[in-house]
């Protein structure tokens, strides 16, 4: 699809959205529309790359039998042991998490951006505002949805052998399976209380603040270099979203590895003798000492494969949903957005 075709399609969707908005979304608060757009964008992008996300988690947590395999071999092994649905194991928890996470992420980003524009005009209206608003939005959404991310990781970490009906984790060979999201959260809460539900939140927040900020910054910055006639192009949005996600993820990936290992610390076997880390810095130090510095980037290749379509789909879907729902641009409608 070339740029002109993308522009034509985007224009068609935008025109159709105007008519739809007049009948279906009149009177709906802007922040509700932002929640809907963000949630839909997050669910679509996350489900699209779910198999790659599953393999990435298995690599990051050094799951026996997977950390030395390639992408194709890992997926093939999952298919052999768990069938096609095994590729999407943990995706239910992921989608349940990502819908409120992405909804809050995009909505609070718009709210923070509006607040900064209204209260700090000296900062201007450039991509730097997106960096600040994106960072704050990332932290807010993580704090509100982190337990669901923990559940997703624990579910994805377990590898079932459907022939024996058992669950293999890295600790004691064969273990009883967690009974879905509720079972994971109940088990974790009984073991460690509220603090247990937020195990690994430190490196998550440390990583999400620059990642979310840089992602929004790069997306908006790249769009400023696109000629006006191509601003509505779907391919332009996909390309800017992919590059933005790629840039942000590269800088913060080691913290994602730390988060995953902290999340599954109680499941890991004796070979990981220091599985329970005291802090983010302690985790980074111990991983480098016991597993080598390369472990901090283990899975980064598949993350590049995953983040390109994920970020591209997420940003593009959000932009298209904003247009379809009739959400006004911040710079042009500050009073409306701030309401």
UniProtKB/TrEMBL annotation:
Gene3D superfamilies: Mitochondrial carrier domain
Any GO CC annotation of this UniProt entry: mitochondrial inner membrane
Positions of Solcar repeats: 29-115, 125-225, 232-324
Highest rank taxon of the organism: Eukaryota
Keyword field contains Transport: yes
GO molecular function, one term: coenzyme A transmembrane transporter activity
One protein family per Pfam: Mito_carr
Keywords assigned by UniProt, alphabetized: Membrane, Repeat, Transmembrane, Transport
Cellular localization per UniProt: Membrane
Membrane topology of this protein: Multi-pass membrane protein
InterPro entries, per database record: MCP (IPR002067), MCP_dom_sf (IPR023395), MCP_transmembrane (IPR018108)
PANTHER family given in the database record: SOLUTE CARRIER FAMILY 25
Family: Belongs to the mitochondrial carrier (TC 2.A.29) family.
Protein's name in the database: Mitochondrial carrier protein
Organism this protein belongs to: Glycine max
């Amino acid at each position: 699809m070339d740029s002109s075709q993308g522009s034509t399609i985007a224009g068609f969707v935008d025109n159709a959205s105007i008519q739809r908005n007049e009948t279906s979304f009149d009177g709906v608060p802007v922040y509700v529309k932002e929640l809907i757009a963000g949630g839909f964008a997050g669910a679509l992008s996350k489900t699209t790359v779910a198999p790659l996300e599953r393999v990435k988690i298995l690599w990051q947590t050094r799951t026996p039998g997977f950390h030395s395999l390639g992408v194709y071999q890992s997926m093939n092994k999952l298919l052999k042991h768990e069938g096609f649905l095994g590729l999407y194991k943990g995706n239910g928890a992921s989608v349940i998490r990502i819908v409120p996470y992405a909804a809050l992420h995009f909505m609070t980003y718009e709210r923070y951006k509006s607040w900064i524009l209204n209260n700090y005009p000296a900062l201007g209206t450039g991509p730097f505002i997106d960096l600040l608003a994106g960072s704050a939005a990332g932290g807010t959404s993580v704090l509100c949805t982190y337990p669901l991310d923990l559940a997703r990781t624990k579910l994805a970490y377990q590898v079932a052998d459907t022939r024996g009906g058992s669950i293999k984790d890295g600790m004691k060979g064969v273990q009883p399976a967690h009974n879905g999201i509720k079972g994971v959260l109940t088990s974790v809460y009984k073991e460690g209380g509220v603090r247990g539900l937020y195990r690994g939140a430190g490196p998550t927040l440390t990583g999400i603040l620059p990642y979310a900020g840089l992602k929004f910054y790069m997306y908006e910055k790249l769009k400023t270099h696109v000629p006006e006639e191509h601003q509505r192009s779907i391919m332009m949005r996909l390309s800017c979203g992919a590059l933005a996600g790629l840039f942000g993820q590269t800088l913060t990936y080691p913290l994602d590895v730390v988060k995953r290992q902290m999340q599954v610390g109680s499941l890991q076997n004796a070979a990981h003798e220091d599985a329970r880390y005291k802090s983010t810095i302690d985790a980074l130090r111990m991983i480098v000492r016991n597993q080598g510095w390369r472990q901090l980037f283990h899975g980064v290749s598949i993350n590049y494969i995953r983040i390109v379509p994920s970020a591209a789909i997420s940003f593009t879907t959000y932009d298209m949903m904003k247009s379809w729902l009739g959400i006004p641009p911040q710079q042009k409608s500050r009073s409306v957005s701030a309401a």
